[in-house]
Amino acid sequence: xxxxxxxxxxxxxxxxxxxxxxxxxxxxxxxxxxxxxxxxxxxxxxxxxxxxxxxxxxxxxxxxxxxxxxxxxxxxxxxxxxxxxxxxxxxxxxxxxxxxxxxxxxxxxx
Length: 110
What we know:
Elements: E1 4-7, H1 15-25, E2 31-33, H2 38-47, E3 52-55, H3 60-72, E4 76-79, H4 86-89, E5 92-95, H5 97-108
């Protein structure tokens, strides 16, 4: 596959959860990248440089502008859990439309 995803290594997130995510994602993608800024990573999804992005426990100011960029560029965004608010939880899944559904299933372990 050729998808490239990005993730966060957020201090508040247990490393075991991140490793479980990586265990599901890495076998089915071309690579995982992390530049250190949620806003930049979401902008890269919007620009088509990344196919997807996920992160947990962000502050609303970390994701608000990037979330809008992804949507305006035709990408899709969703919460980490189906019934939660992205802004309230600070947890986001974003991807381009062709891979979004598959990416969500991988991240949510569905």
